[in-house]
Design a protein that fits this description.
The chain has about 725 residues and is of the alpha+beta class. About 25% of the residues lie in helices and about 25% in strands. GO terms for molecular function: RNA polymerase II general transcription initiation factor activity.
């Protein structure tokens, strides 16, 4: 690009770097007289404004497919484009007006990684005019037509943050303070927490170690705007010669342009609010196999001898090797299901097959739920839990309940009359007749029977617990940075998985066992297998703590919720992020997949429950009613009802069938990501159940659709 080259040569000449200038000119085969003629054209391009920052009218289009200035390969680059300058390894510097200064990044003396990020704030405008620029744009947007105003208002927050940071970085502290005080009240209420962090950054030094700051700088803030609104904005900024704002738009924002009608305020409000704006539409285009895997079929005689082989818990007593034709086709293969062997899943053991049979028997006696037939709710209240209850899980067959506590203990209770027993010692085991029918009973030590077992090992609060599907193992994760695997045969710790360096907030077993996932303060989720010391996959992409994790029912995908206010869906096979869902206004604390694998429900500190269509990558519902953080979500066994539990001491039941039935997932809505949510979710609310003073931290539907809820009584 000839003009860019000339700008660089000028800079070298002004800096008395003759040698470099000669080399570059030889490389580019530019002779001295050529340079002279070019210099004239560049220098007069826009008097009074740094030439690098001038925007030739009609150029500098922000492309929906790339997002950074005219970096579409099909257009000539302009000197004014961030890309052209960035390719030279530097950024504009304050400099004197009318001069072209490239390579400003060289001057900054930060740590190398942070300096690269911060150098983009080398400033190019008059600090006293920032308030004028911003209020000018604000006036323009507020006076534009209603249809454009809602869309363009999305610019206020990211521009406010970047202009403030630019002032702070260039040490105009008083201007920065007055800019913040004048405009911070205009931002949307859901950015209050971010603004609180921002207000504490008042000096250049503060910016170096600040993670929020770096996130904001390194990840482009994504805005989804219709082409008409975008053209309007561009015309306005060019007429006003408002280069300061235009530079920020080009350098720090990604504008995802769509053709069609601008979105309404209500449509935009439903989708925005995350740390980095909305998800790009491209992020939700990948194919997701959301169908269920085919269940193997069993030939198991359901006769009397089988009946006595069970105890109250439904745990098999006898293992009889039966000739199962496990491979035979049961239901037709779901067209949306992943290939059966897409990821390696563990083989079914005999005890697993017996358990599946029990499950089928229970399912035959299952209550069909619906608006006319709501489930009974059984609430387990932890009394005197002065240790601080921090996590709860219940086994699939509802025979055991586990609590993780802030005093670093893990406590397991039996909730059936059958007590918890450990296996006998090795010496005693050697005396047992291994051929006897009830060998599994004989290996248990009656002397150890008790209703409660306490597991010691963590050195910090336990934030997540998860039973394995076969009820032989238990996972717990803690503030100490480890995930521990406990045996429920011996009630001892088998492995400590060390991979996270910071607190681990959640962990969960795969529905098929063997694999498990953990997420923590280090912003990544990790996929593990019980027999591997190191993680198999590391899912990186969130901009803040990973607060909750969930396996998809087919075990091929993992959903993670984060404090960056987004939910991501990851592919276990290759570690790719295949969905990004934005719309919550606070950290995500609960996730639940529908039993058919098509939908995801998410709950957060904003008290809203959002519903997502995984296949189309769209938000399809918003359930409003809770007044505090939603910590627990669970679909009934057949997916007719969604239960939500919250810190507001209530359990609410929602009509899931109705919520998902009239979806308009036609091509238009999928293409633009528009949604029309009903104004009122009250017609989906089937019931609200208050506890006296117990926040709900866990929900579980038994195999017969009885709803179990759990929480610790709080006396305040």
């Amino acid at each position: 690009d000839r003009q860019t080259l000339v700008a660089v040569l000028q800079f070298l000449r002004r800096s008395n770097l003759r040698e470099s200038e000669e080399i570059l000119r030889r490389e580019a085969r530019l002779l001295g007289d050529d340079l002279g003629s070019c210099v004239a054209t560049v220098a007069t391009s826009s008097p009074g404004v740094a030439a690098v920052a001038s925007i030739p009218p009609g150029k500098g289009e922000i492309r929906g497919d790339c997002g950074v200035g005219p970096c579409s390969r099909r257009e000539p680059r302009e000197v004014g484009s961030p890309c052209a300058v960035r390719s030279l390894g530097g950024y504009r510097d304050a400099g004197t007006q009318g001069s072209v200064s490239v390579g400003g990044a060289v001057v900054v003396e930060d740590q190398p990684d942070v300096s690269a990020v911060l150098s983009a704030y080398n400033q190019q405008g008059d600090p006293t005019l920032y308030e004028e620029y911003y209020s000018g744009l604000k006036h323009f947007i507020e006076c534009s037509l209603d249809c454009h105003r809602a869309e363009l208002s999305q610019l206020f927050y990211p521009l406010f943050v970047h202009m403030y940071l630019e002032l702070v970085y260039n040490q105009h502290e008083s201007e920065a303070k007055s800019f913040f005080e004048r405009f911070h009240g205009d931002q949307e209420c859901y950015y209050q927490d971010d603004l609180r962090v921002l207000s504490s950054l008042t000096k250049k030094e503060h910016m170096k170690g600040n993670e929020t700051m770096l996130d904001f700088r390194t990840s482009k803030f994504v805005l989804r705007i219709s082409r008409d609104s975008y053209q309007l904005l561009k015309r306005h900024l060019q007429e006003k010669q408002n280069n300061q704002i235009w530079n920020i738009v080009q350098e720090h924002l990604y504008i995802d342009i769509f053709d069609g009608m601008p979105r309404s305020k209500q449509q935009i409000d439903a989708m925005v609010g995350s740390l980095a704006g909305e998800a790009k539409r491209e992020a939700n285009k990948a194919k997701v196999f959301f169908g269920l895997l085919k269940e193997p079929e069993f030939d198991v005689p359901l006769d009397d001898e089988d009946e006595e082989g069970e105890n109250e818990e439904g745990k098999p007593k006898k293992k009889k090797p039966k000739k199962d034709n496990v491979g035979s086709k049961s239901k037709k293969q779901d067209p949306n299901a992943p290939p059966q062997n897409r990821i390696p899943l563990p083989e079914l053991k005999d005890s697993d097959k017996l358990d599946k049979v029990m499950n089928m028997k229970e399912a035959a006696r299952r209550v069909r739920l619906g608006p006319e037939c709501l489930p009974s709710i059984c609430f387990y209240t932890f009394l005197n839990a002065y240790q601080g209850l921090t996590a709860v899980d219940i086994t699939d067959d509802s025979s055991m309940i586990v609590g993780g506590f802030a005093d670093s203990t893990v406590r397991v209770w039996s909730v059936t009359p059958k007590k918890l027993r450990s296996v006998k010692t090795a010496a005693d085991l050697s005396l047992i007749d291994k051929e006897s029918d009830d060998v599994l009973e004989r290996i248990m030590d009656e002397k150890t029977a008790s209703e409660l077992k306490i597991l010691y090992g963590h050195s910090g609060p336990v934030y997540g617990t998860s039973f394995s599907p076969d009820r032989n193992y238990l996972l717990s994760c803690s503030e100490d940075g480890t995930v521990r695997l406990w045996s429920l045969q011996t009630f001892t710790c088998l492995v400590g998985y060390k991979g996270h360096n910071y607190p681990v907030w959640d962990t969960q077993f795969s529905p098929y066992g063997y694999y498990f996932v953990s997420g923590g303060h280090d912003r990544v989720a990790r996929l593990w297998a019980t027999d591997h010391y190191q993680p198999l996959r590391i899912f990186a992409g969130h901009l803040a703590d990973v607060t909750c994790t969930r396996f998809h029912p087919n075990s091929n995908y993992i959903a993670t919720g984060s404090a960056d206010r987004t939910i991501r869906l990851w592919d276990v096979l290759n570690g790719n992020c295949v969905r990004i869902f934005t719309g919550h206004k606070g950290p995500i604390h609960s996730l639940a997949f529908s039993p058919n694998g098509r939908f995801l429900a998410t709950g957060a500190t904003d008290g809203r429950v959002l519903l997502w269509d995984i296949g189309h990558g769209l938000m399809v519902g918003e359930l409003k009613g809770h007044t505090d953080t939603v910590y627990a979500l669970r679909f009934s066994r057949d997916g007719e009802i969604l239960a939500s539990g919250s810190m507001d001491n209530t359990v609410r039941l929602w009509d899931a069938v109705k919520a998902f039935e009239d979806l308009e997932t036609d091509d238009f809505t999928t293409a633009t990501g528009h949604i029309n949510l009903p104004e009122n979710s009250q017609d989906l609310l089937l019931g609200t159940y208050m506890t006296k003073s117990t926040p709900v931290v866990h929900l579980h539907f038994t195999r017969r659709n009885l709803l179990l809820a759990a929480g610790a009584y709080s006396s305040q």
